[in-house]
Specification:
The structure holds 2 protein chains of 2 kinds. Chain A is an alpha/beta fold. Helix content of chain A is 37%, strand content 15%. Classes of the chains: A alpha/beta, B alpha/beta.
Chain lengths: 448, 489
Amino acid sequence: MKPFSYIPNTVADRAHMLRSLELSRVEELFADIPASVRLDRPMNLPASASEWELMKELKGLAERNVHLEDAISFLGAGAYHHFIPSVVDAVIGRSEFYTAYTPYQPEISQGILQAIFEYQTLVANLLGLEVSNASVYDGATALGEAALMACSHTRRKQVLVARTVHPDHRAVLRTYAAGQAIGVTELAMSDGQLTLRDLERELSDDTAAVIIQYPNFFGSVEDVREIAQRVHARGALLIVSTYPVALGLLEAPGSLGADIAVAEGQSLGNSLSFGGPYLGVMATTSALLRRLPGRIAGQTKDRDGRRGFVLTLQAREQHIRREKASSNICSNQALNALAASVYLSYMGPNGLREVARQCLVKAHYASDRFTAAGAELAFTGSYFNEFVLRLGTRSDHIVSALASEGIYFGVPLGRYYPELEEHVLVTVTEVMPKAAIDHTAERLEAMM
Amino acid sequence: MSRQTTDYPLIFERSVAGRSGYSLPELDVPDVETGALLRQDYLREAAPLLPEVSEVDLIRHYTGLSKRNHGVDSGFYPLGSCTMKYNPKRNEAAVRLPGFALIHPYQPEKSVQGALELMYSLQGYLAEITGMDAVSLQPAAGAAGEWTGLMMIRAYHERRGEHRTKVIVPDSAHGTNPASAAMAGFTIVTIRSDERGAVDLDALKSAVDSDTAALMLTNPSTLGLFEESIVEIADIVHAAGGLLYYDGANANAILGYARPGDMGFDVVHLNLHKTFSTPHGGGGPGSGPVGVKAALIPFLPVPTVAKRSDGSFHLDEDRPLSIGKVKGFYGNFGILVRAYAYIRTMGPDGLKRVAEDAVLNANYLLRRLSAYYHVPFDRVCKHEFVLSGKSFKSHGVKTLDIAKRILDFGYHPPTIYFPLNVEEAMMIEPTESESMETLDAFVDVMIRIAREAEETPDVVKMAPHETVIDRLDETTAARSPILRHTPEQ
């Protein structure tokens, strides 16, 4: 019998166990599978690889990807290359955390339960709202869940979403909405922002929620307070999708009138990892607490008064309420939320502000250099660390020519916005050295 | 572990103003006042309330928390329906390779060919393992896979001009099944199980009609029993024009022995964090790929990973009948790398051994425990089985008490009070990664607890005795929720 690293039973063990079952062959345990549906051939998969062979194969695949230490990347658009301190991996690499299930038995799960409670506190504080859940899948699905929350709370079936919200997030929102027969209307933009006029035109007494992004997909800061006022005046909720790192400098969405704030939490200590696993951050007001999807940890006491933590308000959840649950979510992104907690606790208020400040200042330096090199800033609004450049009719050519030199010069926007065919979305974070910006500006100037 | 004598501090309670651990480079471009770059009226008035701790304090805080947590690496974890198998360390090393960890989802396709090839191969492996024609790797977890599958089923019927509104779910199903069906806009029809724990065929026949969109089935069921009438079940549903949905939570039991595709299932999801060894992370991240038969391929979520005739790989977004996007980017890639590593490590014979040893371990445990605990369905089980604690009720001992007493011996208890159709249920899934000695030691503990329940019931009712904390007041936690730390607390 071929040995496998993760299967301890020996030939003798198997024989002993089979004897205790009065069986002679292990196949007899599968006699309840009708012969007509039994697989009568080996599965057509490659033969098993030893650890050394496996790692060689995986390194080979990994080396066929250009990782960002070997490139100059201005890519962002919802997934950001920030510095991840070593403490994050030291904590999430502890196997008491990563090999545990959802904490159903609180007495032996106080570690993860308290970590979730601390995560909820960090998120609520950062987003300026009262309550947070333990996370959902990612920023896009958080937006979908928030829309469902708003519809069930207001008993209305229409949501309005600004076109300045991430196009992929809007796409996921449409899929969530389709399941529930919720209408989704997109709000036009002008100069890269939602205008109050367009908002007013579409707002109605059927509007459950208005969804905006802050800073928006193009990096701009919109008139959140004014939007909130108008949305609330019609009895609708304001859902704000945000970028947690930006909140080191920017006012919290809760303080600006958001009823639900969501975010892609990747930027908080989670690796880029080709798009996942990330985490969906969600926070809301006490009034909406019981509509939150997913796990929530709460503080309580044991029989002798010791402080402890449990999963709570489970009457919202699928394992209790089944088809009447606030969401179907079961597994969320606990380990990614733990990474986010470690990151926020490590950076503290000053570290987060410093990361945000460097993103902001470097982005503006880069934007000055690139416009001096011949690109045009597409919009006039103030922006955080992302901005849209118009490169002209040769845009695609320039982007691919830079890519072939190892410079990923932003996300081309034509695919998402036909009117922005000649534009790219450029992102700068604290890990972008000045020398790389200068070099890119020189190359850009040569190609423009 | 022993009882805590003082409350374990929160990270916020360790905070000291002015202390910090972070380290960042100096700004290397000319500094500009923040207010000159961003609109002043949107700048924070006060810094966010985050803790201020040193690096040492932070590490000790989380190390201390980790010691207050039980994982598979800490000890036996027979949590039924969750497949708490060992999480291979080589898989953890693999995802940390910079070529996987440090690639951006919007990089040019040319620069991520290795990642796309891995995903393409994994789609193929999972299709072969399940007997389906195509696989999407996008859903982030099992429930997301269910919802994705049901949205495809809906699109399939609508494309054929039919508006079918009902999804049938057995009473033993996971709660996510009805919840996902409701999210996809369906009405749920629950059918009972028969006295052998199987789908009641008469109940199914009377529930199925021209309004049936699908039957959702877990096979083996949450009772750990294979649906012996699966061919007949598939015929009943298909004859009415409905589709069959396979909840892959229990796929570990049948790897290499049977495939949902061959049983007549039209849509399946797998939980990579169960069957394919990826860690549960204390509640995620998981991954819930969905496989479909050919007729449903047009409805798969975008993007799928495709191969061009020149051998290169790309993300295929051009799928006009697709249900759309179900997640940001392309799925939980880091989890996909781990599952790929597991499948390559095990190979076809290893995966078959997984099913054999998982099922053998479960039957061995069941046989040894059946003299001491009530067995509601006494037949060969698959990877898990259900016991009932009802015989101890006369001593005032409930299944919850037994679970809490198990904690004292360093084990995670079984899943309790599920499935819902068994009184005082305890659902036990040992998995293939446990040795016979571990199973025997667990049996000894279970026998001891059964004796205690009859002879010294208070020892069980007052359990746990050895954990850092005693049973917690969940009622007050829900009635007066405290969901975050506030400084005045």
